[in-house]
Amino acid sequence: MRGRATRPGLSPRGRHRYIAFHKPYGVLSQFTGTASQRTLAGFGLPRGIYAAGRLDADSEGLLLLTDDGTLIHRLLEPEFAHPRTYWAQIERVPGASALDALRAGPRLSDGPCRPCDAHLFDPAPEVPPREPPIRFRKSVSTAWLEITLTEGRNRQIRRMTAAIGHPTLRLIRAAIGTLRLGNLQPGEWREVSRPR
Questions:
Q1: Residues with catalytic annotation?
Q2: Quick check: 88 and 61 in contact, CB under 8 A?
């Protein structure tokens, strides 16, 4: 929840803390920034926790924050192939061949991607409005994909959808392993159990 009362730096019974946060569009995945940047510091989060991974400022959705260094290491190391699920709103509806190319793992400038799970939403998922909204063009249709990756390269989803000819307009991380965004609204957070 936004501005939830907590005892900064303390965890129940001395255990690690795990916070699921719905990072809004335009917010950095860190607590510090320049005067013009929005950061995690503006959401009443407990002190002493850190983001286990990142979302670009122009991406939204689930961000896990914790003081559990072992878990952060496991989530960030490629050898553990930890799944992350994203919802991507893309330009135009992709055909079967484009989806097959996406699932197979397109070759990017830094090498081929691992195969991934990807499918079209029908109907589109219910998501909160984004501020500011995406650019709307009457002449260009959009579609929503659910994509689950086991690697985490820089701006990977955006580069993958561009590689198959369907640029990403909006990107929301929906899950990290078994931890799901659920009904958290942008800017809200809740304490959760240690994700698997």
A1: 56
A2: no
Strands (E), 92-178: 107-108, 111-112, 117-120, 142-149, 168-176
**Distance of alpha carbon 161 from alpha carbon 10, whole angstroms:** 42
pLDDT above 50 for 4: no
- How far apart CA 11 and CA 16 sit, in angstroms, is 6
Query: Which helix (H) or strand (E) is 157 found in, with range?
Result: helix 156-163
Name the β-bridge partners of 63. Answer: 21
The CATH fold assigned to 83-176 is: Alpha-Beta Plaits (3.30.70)
CB 190 within 8 A of CB 19: yes
For residues 143-169, give the mean pLDDT: 95
Q: What is the pLDDT of residue 79?
A: 67
Q: What angle do CA 132, 136, 137 make, to 5 degrees?
A: 160
pTM: 0.89
* 12-77+180-191 placed in CATH 3.30.930.10: no
